[in-house]
Amino acid sequence: MTAHPLDLVARRPRTCIWEITGACNLRCVHCENRCGEKGGRELPMDRMQAVAESLARLGCKTVDVTGGEPLMRPGWDGLCRRLADLGMDLALITNGTLLDDEALDRALGSGVGVVAVSLDGMREVHDATRLRPRPGRSPWEEAVEAIGRAARRIRTKVITQVNRTNMSELPEMRRLLCDLGIGHWQLQLALPTGRVLDLGEPYVIHPDDLVDLAAFISECQGDASLPCIDTGDTIGYYTACEPVLRKRPTGQGLWLGCQAGIRLMAITYNGKVRGCSAMPEDFDAGDLHEESLEEIWSDEERFSYSTRFDTAKLTGACASCGFGELCRGGCTSMAYWVTGTIYENPYCLLALEHR
After folding, report:
1. Please, what is the average pLDDT of the chain?
2. Nearest to 292 by CA among 312, 273, 315
3. Between residues 346 and 40, which one has the greater pLDDT?
4. Is 27 helix (H, G, I), strand (E, B) or coil?
5. What is the distance between the alpha carbons of residues 279 and 261, in angstroms, rounded to a whole number?
């Protein structure tokens, strides 16, 4: 193989995941950033407006506005309006507890095209996952109400972090989302990072569990009823079901390596730039308090884990895999959090088959 497909595409951040605040009204047990009170060194809004202009100049097409809980950041709708005016498509990612009719009005008025609400199980499991720091209503009830409310007014999707507590509930969740009229359901694996590391029991699914999860997704994708499943980058790779797992409205797909730092960018709530929001601070490429986004992105060496990926460094099952040069170890973030290296990833369906 002389050139990887990602080496042949124009390097521009077509998608940006932007954490606009570290503040959150919940304390989710799987939160990668341990969000809660307002995060330190959050970018001031005038600086964020300048970053929005930089994103447009770099060719960004889609921005996922998230947090923390983005609805807790004053001026979130003004930032969205600026991004939309600059020609970018916007998705607002929220826990749903603050998504009332007023917030929806503001989202629609600021150019948001998609609302994505997190739902991590049925009532008992979700409420044990997305904890309130103080007494209040069931976060599950509020999220489900928000999903129904949003679905009547704007394109709405649901995001689920698959883990050991909710995997058995996925069929019931799908029936609920079908009743709510949801067309897209994003499934991704919880990562062994953040508050997960504080738990006294296993939380992230075992690699062996991928077989059942892939079978569930494949069965759903073969069913004409909604919702369609958007399979996260942490799930796959290169078995017979791969085209089904990567099924999109335009056809079937194929995993071709991590796009972090090539077609994907993340901005953390404290102004750091990374290739992906799930990456640890070891992968920080720069600080927007000190440099412009263009300066950071234009230096390819800062994203060398993707732009200079060395397949000769693959280890374990990845080293002997015939798809190693294409796959590049699957999801870079999962590989690193599990093994401490980006060159070996036990969360691989093909590796399980070969074993």
Report:
1. 95
2. 273
3. 346
4. strand
5. 11
| Best CA proximity match to 112, nearest among 95, 89, 82 | 89
Question: What is the total residue count of the chain?
Answer: 355
Q: Which H or E run contains 339? A: helix 332-339
Whether the pLDDT of residue 224 is over 80: the answer is: no
Beta bridge partners of 274: 266
The structure tokens 């036990």 sit at 346
* 165, burial (CB in 10 Å: exposed 0-12, middle 13-18, buried 19+): buried
Residue 26 near residue 69 (C-beta atoms within 8 A): yes
Query: Is the Cβ–Cβ distance between 39 and 9 less than 8 Å?
Result: no
pLDDT 10s digits, 3-38? 899 999 999 999 999 999 999 999 999 999 899 987
- Tokens 């309006």 correspond to 81
Beta-strand (E) ranges in the chain?
Answer: 15-19, 27-28, 62-66, 89-94, 114-118, 130-131, 155-162, 184-189, 228-231, 264-267, 272-274, 286-287
Tokens representing 33? 């950033």
Provide the token pair at 341. 């290296």
- Judged against a pLDDT cut of 90, whether residue 144 lies above it is answered with yes
Q: How far is CA 141 from the centre of its chain?
A: 23
User: Which amino acid is it at 206?
Assistant: H
Whether omega for the bond prior to residue 74 falls within 30 degrees of 0, making it cis, is: no
Residue 232 confidence class, pLDDT cut points 50, 70, 90: very high
Residue 166: partners with Cβ closer than 8 Å, 6 or more residues away: 120, 121, 125, 126, 129, 160, 173
Handedness of CA 218, 171, 353, 234 (dihedral sign): positive
